[in-house]
Amino acid sequence: MTKASVLITGASTGIGAVYAERFARRGHDLVLVARDNAKLETLAARLRQENGISVDVLPADLTQTRDLAAVEARLREDSRIGILINNAGIAQSGSFTGQTPDSIESLIALNVTALTRLASAVAPRFVQAGEGSIVNISSVVGLAPEFAMTVYGATKAFVLFLSQGLNVELSSKGIYVQAVLPAGTYTEIWDRAGIDISNAAKFMEVGELVDAALVGFDRREQVTIPPLHNAARWDTLDASRQALLSDIKQDEVAERYKAL
Ligand SMILES: NC(=O)c1ccc[n+]([C@@H]2O[C@H](COP(=O)([O-])OP(=O)(O)OC[C@H]3O[C@@H](n4cnc5c(N)ncnc54)[C@H](OP(=O)(O)O)[C@@H]3O)[C@@H](O)[C@H]2O)c1
């Protein structure tokens, strides 16, 4: 049986490049997306040569409408693509008041809009086929307003919620959606965002992160948090969220808000 092709965004370096490497080793054909065509071509040539797979390079700036539309079209039309790795993302340095509206808009355009549009482009075809996987790269920052990476964290909370909601909507149709929440991982993201990590606690190596995420993928886990050691903590958080929901009474104001 032919293995599904995998389209990976942000494949030119970091987490995306390691996903490319790992899926290539598993014998999947690839479609690699990022802005840096030269880096994508170099990676593609190596992966073709080492693994005997076919690799297409699709250079795109996913914050640009035309480029994004081209990747969406590829996802809609190429029925060989059965796995989408929604990985491209950026972070941002500084406090909320120090960030510009334009830089905030670019962050949301990539981390939220592009990621959601790509999932939206591919999902109907997956539903029709009765199978397909979408992996969305979120972050533990999305669980932690305390980290004060406010807009970045909000985009990652969005990605987690989107993934959970898509699972509710699509899992009965044969679609698997995974949210992956890395913590600090050694990639270029920090340098690119102008965040100095030289004095930070030790981070995770990117290969270990992706291998762990793939263990979760193979187990069809909906939320994979490689750096979380006590898995029960996630279950407890999710159970208290559900308990909170069970206490929402739509037609009745809570006692503490009733006027005296
Ligand atoms: N590293 C961490 O500590 C960490 C922790 C939690 C979550 N994450 C998440 O993991 C994902 C991957 O991050 P990473 O650490 O691997 O970062 P990275 O090393 O900086 O790689 C980011 C990738 O995204 C691509 N990209 C950036 N802007 C783009 C654009 N406008 N259009 C298309 N592609 C674009 C980059 O390629 P080009 O420059 O060639 O376009 C690159 O391939 C992100 O979503 C990030 O938020 C990372």
Task: For the structure shown, list the relevant keywords.
Rossmann fold, binds NADP nicotinamide-adenine-dinucleotide phosphate, 7 strands, 260 residues, 47% helix, globular, 7-stranded parallel sheet
Secondary structure elements and pairings:
Elements: E1 5-9, H1 14-25, E2 30-34, H2 37-51, E3 55-59, H3 65-77, E4 81-86, H4 101-129, E5 132-137, H5 150-170, E6 175-180, H6 189-193, H7 206-218, E7 223-224, H8 232-246
Helix pairs in contact: 1-2, 1-7, 3-4, 4-5
Bound molecules: NADP nicotinamide-adenine-dinucleotide phosphate.
The site of NADP nicotinamide-adenine-dinucleotide phosphate has 30 residues, from α1 and α6.
Strand order of the largest sheet: 3-2-1-4-5-6-7
Task: State the end-to-end distance.
Answer: 70 Å
CATH hierarchy: architecture: 3-Layer(aba) Sandwich
| CATH 4th-level superfamily | NAD(P)-binding Rossmann-like Domain
Name the ligand types: NADP nicotinamide-adenine-dinucleotide phosphate
Characterize the overall form. globular
| Domain unit count | 1
Regarding CATH, which class? Answer: Alpha Beta
Q: What proportion of the residues form beta strands (DSSP E)?
A: 5-15%
**Helix/strand/pairing class, anyone?**
alpha/beta
How helical, in percent, are the residues?
Answer: 40-55%
- Helix tally equals 8
User: N-to-C SSE series?
Assistant: EHEHEHEHEHEHHEH
- Number of DSSP strand runs: 7
Average pLDDT for all residues = 97
Can you tell me the residue ranges where pLDDT is under 50 for at least 5 consecutive residues?
A: none
Give a quick account of the main beta sheet: strands, pairing sense, barrel closure: 7 strands, parallel
Tell me the Rg in angstroms.
19 Å
- Examine the coordinates and then state which fold CATH places here, giving the name of the CATH topology: Rossmann fold
